[in-house]
Fold this protein.
Amino acid sequence: GYLSWIGARVVDMPWDYARHNVDLDGVRRALRERRPSWLIIGGSRPLFPYPVSAMRAEADQVGARILYDGSHILGLWAGGQFQNPLAEGADIVTGSTQKTIPGPLGGLLFCRDAELLRPIAQICDGVLGDHGNARVAAIGVTLAELVAFGREYAGAIVANARALGGALAAEGFTIAAADLGFTSSHQVLVLPDGWRAPDAAAALERAGIQCSLVALHRAADAPAVTGLRLGTSGVTRRGMTPAEMKVAARLMARALLHVEDGEVIRKEVRELRAAFPDVRYTFPA
């Protein structure tokens, strides 16, 4: 990535696989041994808030700044359903506008210290060539929607994710962080159990259900396995509720655990989607 282009030395963040979160004791040791200039918090599978306040206190001991990658949770933060990383001590927060913020492809950056923006602006001038007027207008509308409907939308996203995790577990799937309530974000992670994730993803696609392949760990000393990542932002935007999450879990179980005909399931998926034709949490047309 870009950090390697500029010659920065990157050390992986210590991770607590049982808690699906940062290993704070490991971070404390690494900070004293490595004495980094920046501590970067975030990832592509954020189930729970990170201990930003505690990490701020530790980073201050070695003079490190904190960058929080909020790409996946920015809309949940805006809706008051996830942590506020700036309030908890992050110096910079970055994020995207097309995940839990339901907008076009793009990015946002928040900063507590205006002085930090100067080198960022210089870098952007060198690597960015265009901002796209139409895209900026669309992001503006999306942000206005968040002001008006963000709290309700974000709350529904998290409620649907928890309901989906519980429903999948009830169907017989092995769900990451089941002992912790499955998730506090928009994501649900499914561990393979008698099936290969690439085959499962293909079977779900035939059934009209989309997912992502992600690396997961059952334990700290266990090798990574490929699992499935599911998100509830899109279905929530269409107005689906926890009741529909139970239906979705049953459809997934039929496709993967009971190995029913994908085309038959696909018809039922289409019928479910057709029952929710409108975009919700938005202004009247």
Notes: The two ends are 41 Å apart (CA to CA). The mean pLDDT is 94. The chain has two domains: 2-134, 150-274. The longest strand covers residues 225-231.
